[in-house]
Amino acid sequence: MAVRQGRTRLNEMDGSGDNVFVIATVTHIQDLASHKPYQKGLLRDGSLSSDDVRPFVVYDPDIKLEKGTRYKLNGFDHPYERFDEIQLLLGEGAYVEAFEK
Questions:
Q1: How far apart, in whole angstroms, are the C-alpha atoms of residue 58 and residue 25?
Q2: Three-class SS state of 39
Q3: How many CB atoms are closer than 10 A to CB 59?
Q4: Which of 5, 9, 41, 44 is least surrounded, with the fewest CB atoms within 10 Å of its CB?
């Protein structure tokens, strides 16, 4: 696992486990009835085709993302083998900042 320098586009995520910085908009939210993860949803940025999205999961109870909001996010490029998907994992203390509307 490494820290990628600069911004990572969602289409560049490959499940490497690297620490990545992304800028993306939340398009869907699923609040989970479990203690962890606390939230799951979908992200988009300009690098993805019009029908493509990247899942995210939140493991910090203090982080709550909102649908339709664009964020600066620092998390992990995480492979979730159970569903064969690549996720942005936001763990304890992850950096999350909403862009001003």
A1: 15
A2: strand
A3: 17
A4: 5
Long-range contacts of 75-81, Cβ-Cβ distance < 8 Å, separation of 24 or more: 75/19, 75/20, 75/22, 76/1, 76/17, 76/18, 76/19, 76/20, 77/4, 77/8, 77/13, 77/14, 77/15, 77/16, 77/17, 77/18, 77/19, 77/20, 78/15, 78/17, 79/15, 79/17, 80/55
CATH fold for the domain made of 3-98: OB fold (Dihydrolipoamide Acetyltransferase, E2P) (2.40.50)
Cα 5 from chain centroid?
Answer: 17
Domain boundaries, the chain: 3-98
Rounded to two decimals, what is the model's pTM? Answer: 0.90
